[in-house]
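User: Um, any thoughts?
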Amino acid sequence: MLTLRTLGDAQTRLLYAHQMRRDFPPSELKSLSSILVMRERGEYDVLGAFEDGVMVGYALVYRPAQGRIHLLDYFAVEPSVRGRGKGTALLHLLLEHYRASADAVMIECERPKAAPDEAAARKRIRFYTQAGAQLTPVRLWLFEVEYSILVLPCGEEMPRGDWAGQMLGLYRQMLNPQEYARNVRLIRA
């Protein structure tokens, strides 16, 4: 059975050094120090999914001080267990975990037409939509990467919202003004 646990600083450092560096390109990784600072402020969760005492996946979630929309910042399953339903199970655990504090979780997925591996980007979006996420028309340029934005409801119904405004608001809260100005742009279709 899959269980969700909050990781401490030492575990977070190991996760970042090994799994996150393996699973994400450098252009998509925040610094470890920024993750630890947000975690210390109580607005960022580093969660591990464990099965029989072994971590099989992880999720890093930004929880703004205000608002009921969270951001799934990083999400991955160990390569050795991919394709076995662990990712879907982890998403369901996350939704249950945040049901009381969030109406929805926003997800950034590299836009297929802008991705180095278009097929992998399409597969990633398909994974989230099959789990119940809705692809929004919002596209953002974040830290030199173009993303499509999805929304996954934590409850039975999809909340309504200005998803572009929500995403921009999350990043305004997460980053200092200079970082935001340099690295966050809404792409108008």
